[in-house]
Amino acid sequence: MLISQRSQYALRAIFELSRHYGQGLLRAPQIAETQAIPPKFLGIILHQLKQGGFVEAKRGHDGGYGLTRPPKDLTVGELLGFVEGPVGPVDCLTPGGKHHCPLDGQCVFLPLWQRVQDAVSAIYTTTTFQDLVDQEQQRCSGYVPTFTI
Known about the structure:
The protein is mostly helical. Helices cover 50% and strands 5% of the residues. The protein has 6 helices and 2 strands. A two-stranded antiparallel sheet has the order 1-2. It starts with a helix and ends in an 8-residue tail after the last helix.
């Protein structure tokens, strides 16, 4: 149940846009540098996110990217579902799974896998990008550099 690198980059791009929500548009190179995303790959991801209605784009001198809605209204699960498609611990629980299980309906592990999928899904669908921004702010506000010799 690994999240693809593309999905991780998409999550980081949306997170960076969430951090700056309401402060104007961000240019792709700024997003790429801050979130350690290869610029060429970021362009592809931002285009995909624009097509999905997650981001808006404006060309020109004052151009850049921004979220189409507030971070409090956008969940990690929604973004992962768009980029990754259905995510599950095993193929037999994933809609459109590619493999047929010979133990279909008789697998002793199926309830376990279902609980895992439900737990992970609950976390993804209840975590907003605003939650992540708030967590980062709390983490950073607790950091006080000390200069001792």
